[in-house]
Amino acid sequence: MNYRAVETVDEYVARLETGADWRAEIESLANEVDADAGWFSALGAVQDAELWFYDQDECEYYPIEFDEPLEVASCIGNISLLDGERFAHTHAVLSDPDGTTYAGHLNEATVWAGEVHLRVFEEPLEREYDETTELDLWL
Ligand code: ZN
Q1: Helices and strands in the chain, H and E counts
Q2: How far is the CA of 25 from the centre of ligand 1 (A)?
Q3: 139 alpha carbon to ligand 1 midpoint, in Å?
Q4: How would CATH label the architecture of 17-130?
Q5: Taking a C-beta distance cutoff of 8 angstroms, is the pair 21, 30 a contact?
């Protein structure tokens, strides 16, 4: 296990812009407040979404696409540096009009409305390619 202590230096709340991309909005927030590491939670609604599922046998992401309005019942993620850019690793639980949920790694989604709470950590977090999982994991 790879672990370290982190110190929260700032906390922000933000409203995501209607029509913008959900994850890009969180990355914009991280860029505006110079957050090289952080943890966030969010909720709201999206107009469409693309979730990814990671197949551990094939070491490949498979997209699950939704072209309909969905609630973001829960969204959690973190900010770290990937190839020198701030990356918002984002997971979400989305729900439809019946309350049925779909969940996974959120690649993209068009914001209807969104509210985010971001805690910014002092020490940066960086990702690097991991041979075993074929994922970009924390150093
Ligand atoms: Zn993920």
Answers
A1: 1, 8
A2: 17
A3: 16
A4: 2-Layer Sandwich (3.30)
A5: no
Query: What's the rounded Cα separation, in Å, for the pair 100 and 114?
Result: 20
Distance from residue 60's CA to the centre of ligand 1 (Å): 12
Give me ligand 1 centre to Cα 120, in Å.
19
- pLDDT tens-digit map of 36-87: 999 999 999 999 999 999 999 999 999 999 999 999 999 999 999 999 999 9
pLDDT of residue 71: 98
Annotated domain spans of the chain: 17-130
CA of 8 to the centre of ligand 1 (A): 23
Instruction: Please tell me the predicted confidence (pLDDT) of residue 46.
Output: 98
pTM of the entire structure?
A: 0.96
